[in-house]
Write a structure and sequence with these properties.
416 residues; mainly alpha; 80% helix
Length: 416
């Protein structure tokens, strides 16, 4: 189904193109910058074992390095959503892609923990900008008639890129010389292509650039009447993305203990499989009601944490793989359900800020809990630390599912 001229003009009045129909291929292309930046977000994951051996840092330090990404992302979200809604998508996306290229350079030349921290901070800032402005740009290009498709593509672009990053890094670092340089050189090429897409993307600045009320730097929020949708999305998305963050940060250590291998291909493949599941499940559930998708996402996260606890107590590799798959499914469904609720409620002029608000709610616990688990693991052992983490996160997911079930006003429309 193509957009009508009137629909295209409606998009143009907010952030869209105006003056004609937008081919559906541009909706897919608009998602590419999101994918390219998220490839970078997790490309370092299989390399941490290598860096840890060379630099000699602990699991606690490893989770701190990982959490610096979350810190940069959260700071970025305080600004990028509002700026994108007021000045347009491109003025946010282009600097973000430039910063991502800087992160590639720092990663490729890293000689110590400080360099890894700087690279992760730069990556987090870039991802925060793309999460808010890039995902909103997909919706702008899609137009009102394709908002459900836009939510699906934006969400899948995020998790698919997050999965491709560690797999690509694992394979390249094991098969080609100069592992860190090669990985981030390839990622830099992907980012350059994303810059080319943004430059040609059929979106324009708002008609009244700089319009809007409130501070430019602030905790992102949603318009009056959309708070319930945001709360429901965060309630399920937050436990899901925290579960996948834990697998990313400590998964290589778990694999090393269970399999006795430090293979970067194996750890990258585990992360890729997790996010491939997160991508596939979103296409599988797109015809279901939003409430059903959110409840299923919470349930998947609970089961994933039970599988994680089982894996560390029994040394079961299948249980660890199951935990990763279920964690991916939990994040995928929580993310899609949350984005769909916001896309159906929030006007285009506040959509980037709303996306930022959803991600603040999700990434805040995703930064705090895995770091806590890392230091607990250093103090009492990986088994006890993972058990405490898994139990706490399962409780969060149960609470999120109950909140969705008790929300009587949740509309019954399917996702797409």
């Amino acid at each position: 189904m193509t957009e009508t001229t009137a629909e295209v003009r409606a998009v143009g009045s907010a952030h869209g193109v105006g003056g004609g129909e937008v081919p559906v291929r541009w909706v897919w292309l608009a998602a590419w910058p999101v994918t390219a930046v998220f490839v970078l977000s997790n490309a370092a994951t299989p390399l941490y074992v290598l860096w840890q051996r060379e630099m000699g840092f602990s699991r606690g330090t490893l989770t701190v390095v990982f959490a610096c990404y979350i810190a940069g992302l959260l700071v970025s979200l305080l600004v990028s959503g509002v700026v994108s809604d007021r000045l347009g998508r491109k003025p946010v996306l282009l600097p973000a892609l430039g910063l991502a290229l800087v992160a590639c350079l720092v990663f490729a030349t890293a000689g110590g923990v400080a360099a890894l921290i700087v690279a992760r901070l730069c990556t987090g800032v870039a991802v925060g900008a793309v999460v808010s402005a890039g995902m909103a740009a997909v919706t702008d290009v899609a137009g009102p008639a394709r908002r459900r498709l836009a939510a699906l593509l934006a969400s899948c672009a995020m998790v698919f890129g997050a999965g491709v990053g560690p797999l690509l890094a694992g394979v390249l670092s094991e098969t080609l010389p100069g592992p860190t340089v090669t990985v981030f050189a390839v990622e830099a090429v992907l980012l350059v292509t994303a810059v080319a897409v943004v430059l040609r993307m059929p979106v324009r600045r708002p008609a009244r650039a700089g319009a809007g009320t409130g501070a430019w730097i602030r905790v992102p929020g949603v318009p009056r009447g959309a708070g319930r949708q945001l709360a429901l999305g965060v309630a399920v998305f937050a436990p899901g993305i925290t579960a996948t963050s834990f697998v990313l940060s400590l998964g290589p250590s778990l694999l090393s203990g269970l399999l006795g291998t430090d293979s970067r291909i194996v750890s990258g493949a585990l992360a890729f499989t997790m996010f491939l599941c997160a991508t596939g499940v979103q296409f599988a559930v797109r015809g279901l009601q939003r409430r059903t998708v959110l409840v299923a996402g919470a349930g998947a996260t609970v089961l994933g944490m039970l599988a994680l606890v089982t894996a560390v107590h029994t040394g079961s590799v299948p249980a660890l793989a199951g935990a990763a798959l279920l964690a991916g499914a939990g994040q995928g469904m929580g993310q899609l359900g949350g984005l769909s609720l916001l896309n159906s409620t929030v006007p285009a002029g506040r959509l980037a800020e709303a996306n930022a608000a959803l991600n603040v709610g999700g990434y805040l616990p995703a930064g705090i809990l895995p770091v806590t688990a890392g230091y607990v693991s250093d103090a009492v052992g990986l088994t006890a630390g993972a058990t405490v983490f898994g139990t706490a996160l399962a409780g969060m997911a149960v609470a999120g599912g109950v909140l969705v079930l008790l929300s009587r006003r949740e509309p019954a429309q399917p996702l797409g």
